[in-house]
Design a protein that fits this description.
α4 packs across α7 and α5 crosses α7. The chain has ten helices and 16 strands. Helix content is about 30%, strand content about 20%. The protein is an alpha+beta fold. The protein has one domain (about 55-370): Jelly Rolls, CATH 2.60.120. The radius of gyration is 22 Å and the shape is globular. Strands 3-4-12-9-14-7-6-5 form an eight-stranded mixed sheet. It starts with a strand and ends in a 17-residue tail after the last helix.
Length: about 375
Amino acid sequence: MEISKNNETLVTTKHDYDRASELKAFDETKDGVKGLVDASVTNIPRIFHHKIDKDSSSTSTNINKLVVPSVDLVDIQQDPTRRKIVVEKIREASEKWGFFQIVNHGIEVSVLDEMKNGVIRFFEQDSEVKRELYSREPLRPLVYNSNYDLYSSPAASWRDTFYCFMAPKSPKPEDLPSVCRDIMLEYTKQVMKLGNVLFELLSEALGLNPNYLNEMRCNEGIVMVCHYYPSCPEPEMTLGATKHTDNDFITVLLQDHIGGLQVLHENSWVDVSPVPGALVINIGDLLQLITNDKFKSVEHRVVANHVGPRVSVASFYSTSFQPSTRLYGPIKELVSEDSPPKYKETTVQDYVEFSMARGLDGTSPLPYFKIGNVV
């Protein structure tokens, strides 16, 4: 391109941005975002540049005004009065926020700490070892990569991930990384026990028999998703995870002390501030579907940070991609003439495959499953 100025011709060169080639080159390193940080990049590659969501307010004033509800589970098995209080708090949080934190949940802090340390050990082991596990085949026993939707999302996010299907069929120990094998198995065992309790409380919060959601097998599957968010030299240019909802029944999230998780509440981004020893619980799309919109699956995101690495472990209650024929639709006891069913029945597998094919595009897949819509 030529520009004439004061009788001089200035020649500028237009650099075409070949996004597909850059994505491929990044993916083929098999070193993920951590590889970029290890290489001491000072400017993040263009594939990570996000158009940050300006539609909803994210000023510190709005964030600091609101606090995600916290629920103390102490004595809920022994004290019926306390249990009623807890059930009411969970009902209110599930209807209004879709998020709450729990303390005194029964999992020892030492187990939580070792799980976070196990994730760090995995990502900080020798690159050659990790590259052997790098894959985009979603049904491998353990998958490690950067951005499952790398090739379909508008922009890549500043994170690396490994995930594993932990239930209903437990993985072979040899399929799990030696650096975190034991703690993955132990943590899953404890989270599954906690899940049974949470689904009892959620059932009661819906006015149903305590065993209702467990008997529907909402507690049947767990996918463990371990995220590693390295420090970012330009956090204002990118995100750790874009706005999304979770495609499961509920998610139990273990986060470290750094923070960065935000939930969209009343059109404001609210920090889900780390609480020592707490776990974050959020309602997933499938629970919103079967409760006929009574409980809300709410959009959330992770902001990038100069400080890092941040690690988190999300336990998704879902059988995910695993073959299923069981249909889930609005619970009959929750529908009436005044509140007719809003969603079609679906299998977990069909819902998750539809959701994953779209990537984290900032919108929930739920509307596509509404009665009258064609998927």
